[in-house]
Amino acid sequence: MFEQISESFRLALSKVRFVDDEKAIKNALDVLKKALLKADVHHKVTKDLLLSIETDMKQKSIGQKQFLDAIKSNLTQILTAPGNQGFVYAQVAPTIVLMAGLQGSGKTTTTIKLANYLKLRKKKVLVAACDLQRLAAVEQLRQLCEANEIDLFFIENETNPIKVATEALNKAKTGLYDVLLVDTAGRLAIDEALMSEIKDVKTALNPHEIFYVADAMSGQDGVKSASKFNDVLQISGVILSKFDSDSKGGVAISIAKQLGIPLRFVGIGEKVADLESFIPDRIVSRIMGEGDLATLVEKTSMIIDEKEAKRLNQKIKKGQFNFNDFLEQMESVKKLGSMKSLIGMIPGLTNVANQIKDIDLENSKEIVHIKALINSMTKKERENPDLLNNSRKRRLAAGAGLSQMEVNRFLKQFENASKLAKKFSGKGGAKGLANMLSQANMNRPR
Ligand code: GDP
What we know:
This is signal-recognition-particle GTPase. By secondary structure, the chain is an alpha/beta fold. 58% of the residues lie in helices and 9% in strands.
C-alpha cells in the first residue's frame, strides 16, 4: 500500500545508522522531507511532522532507535484524528451508515465492499438503494448485491430517497439487521440540490456514521470536496477508494490531519475483498516495514471456522484430504484479499511484498487449469483421489483441455502437498491453529 513512502523511510533511517550525531539526523530529516513531498503528502502536514520529530529528538539522546521511535509516534499522531477507528457498532442495532461521495468516486463499489467486510464478520447487513439520481445506480447495486449474496432494499420506480431510506430502516429494525448501509446520490460536482437531498436523508435516518468516499487519485481535490461535504453533513469518516492506483500514498498520510476526520478504510482494488481498515498504529507499523500481524491474524480467523479447521486437520492426519477440500480452501483464501497485501503484513516480508507481482488466485493460468481439472472429476473421484487410474486420467485431460502430462503433474503435486500436510499436522498443527485463533479473538478489533 505504501511502497514508495516505506522505501523513503528506510532510506532516511539508513542515514543515521553509522553516524549518530546531529548532522546525521539533519540529513535524515532532509531525506524524509523530500520523500514525503514527493509522495504528495501535503506540505503543511510534512512540515508539522518533521518539526515534531525534530523536537522529540532534541529531548532524547541521538540514535537510530530514538529516531525510529520519534517517527513512529509522530506519524501515528498525524494519522489519528478524533473519532472512531475501523468499524464501530452502535449500542443498539442497527448501526446506520450513510455513504456519500461524488459520482465515479467508487461509492457504490465501496458500499458493497463494506457490506462484505461486515458479512465476513458474521454481521447481518442490509443495503438501501437511495441513489435515485443516476438511472443505472439501483440496477448496479442490485447486481452487485446479488453476486455477493447481500440483502438489498429498493423500491421499484420510486423517486423519493427519503421514502426508500425510512422504509429501509423499518426493514432493518424488524428484520433484526446489525447494520444498514445507505447508498446516496452522487453528482459530478458538489451542488446545492445534492447537498440538500443528502441532508434530508440524514435528518430522516439520524445515522451513527457518515462515510465520505474519496477517490485517492483525485489527491488534494478529493480532500477539498470531503471538506465541503463535511461542512454540510459533519462526516465521521473518510474511505479512500482506488488507493491501488495511487502509488504515492501521500493523500492517506495527510487526510486525517487536514480534515480532522479519521480515515477509516482504504479501497485497494476492484474486487469485493479489496477493502482494508485503516488503523493508524497498524499502518505505521506497515510503513516502517514491520508488518501487521494483528490484521493478518484477524483476517485469517474470520475465514477459518475453528470447528471446520479441526475437521480438516483430522482429515489431513488420516490422509483423507481430497479435491473438494482443496477447492474449498482455495475459495476461502480468495476471501482474504490479494496475496501481495497478505504477504506485506508478515513482519520482515514487507520488502518482499513490494517486490513481487501479485498472484491472481482467480485468473492465474495454473489455478484455472486446476479448477477445470477438478470440475471434470466425478463426485467419487473428488472424494477419493486414489480412484484416478490411467483411463480416468485420460478422460480428465480431455474434459479439462489439458495434456496427460499436465494432469499427472498436478496430481503428483496434490499428492506431495497432502503428504507434507499430513506430516505437518502430526506436529501439533491443530494446536498451533487453535492458539492462533484464541489470540485473534482476544485481539479482535471492532
Ligand atoms: P460511484 O459512481 O461513486 O458509485 O462509483 P462506482 O462504485 O461505480 O465506481 C467507479 C469505478 O471505480 C468502477 O469501475 C469501480 O470498479 C472502480 N473502483 C472503485 N473502487 C476501486 C478501488 O479501490 N480500486 C480500483 N482500482 N477501482 C475501484
